[in-house]
Description:
Elements: E1 5-16, E2 19-30, E3 34-38, H1 45-52, E4 60-65, H2 70-75, E5 79-82, H3 94-106, H4 110-124, H5 139-151, E6 157-160, H6 169-186, E7 189-194, H7 200-203, E8 206-211, E9 214-219, H8 221-227, H9 233-240
Parallel strand pairs: 3-7, 3-8, 5-6, 6-7
Antiparallel strand pairs: 1-2, 1-4, 8-9
Helix pairs in contact: 3-4, 3-5, 4-5, 5-6, 8-9
This protein binds adenosine-5'-triphosphate.
Adenosine-5'-triphosphate is lined by residues 16, 21, 39, 41-47, 195.
Amino acid sequence: xxxxIAVSVTNxxxxxxxxxxxxxxxxxxxxxxxxxxxxxxxxGKTTTLRxxxxxxxxxxxxxxxxxxxxxxxxxxxxxxxxxEDAFPxxxxxxxxxxxxxxxxxxxxxxxxxxxxxxxxxxxxDLGNKIxxxxxxxxxxxxxxxxxxxxxxxxxxxxxxxxxxxxxDVESTVRVRRIIRELPRSINxxxxxxxxxxxxxxxMCDRIALINKGKIVEIGMPKQIAEKYNxxxxxxxxxKAIGNDKSIS
Length: 248
Ligand SMILES: Nc1ncnc2c1ncn2[C@@H]1O[C@H](COP(=O)(O)OP(=O)(O)OP(=O)(O)O)[C@@H](O)[C@H]1O
């Protein structure tokens, strides 16, 4: 991690038919960081990630990705985004799915394409199943393939929307390990979302707690827990939003 800023979001506001779903999000992610955007269902995580990834174009406020607008950064190939509902092409095998993406990102450089593919196979870690059609994959296998696809191209910024949601224990542990360990070796910054406040301690350098379209806290998980004199982030979150009466 360095002091260089990878993502800077200033006063991000998003309205749908005059309803503000993001009301003034500001955050910064440093280069090389694993940064978690954590909050309950409907808090605004996906909307924030879609704006940062250049998919959501209409919003108020400023977003800068390594000094570029999200759309510019996307065109430059700096961003790799995995949506919450990312699915492989079911008619293709796992490796063919990776090949399609490797080709696009390598932009004609055959050596680079090979390098991406090798890394993708390693991250997915699906053994011989990588050669089988993805229609037979379990949910966890599909998710691992999608994460491999997003990370194998060594993007400057990988944005993963709820990478562990709905996975069983084994797949969750594997995915958490990838997110925790890979960025350093491939020089990537990771921004991901989760509504599981208990998993992020292990995964993140820093987190932002988001609720009802607002950031309620930003910092290292341990510091936030300590600030609210809480044994974990879930408890700290409830205290931060003024709902600590529910804790016995
Ligand atoms: N296209 C849309 N039109 C209207 N409202 C929307 C639209 N997309 C999102 N919203 C609303 O914006 C709010 C934030 O949604 P968002 O998907 O960003 O939350 P989230 O934190 O990612 O939730 P989850 O954990 O359930 O995925 C919600 O109230 C949602 O209903």
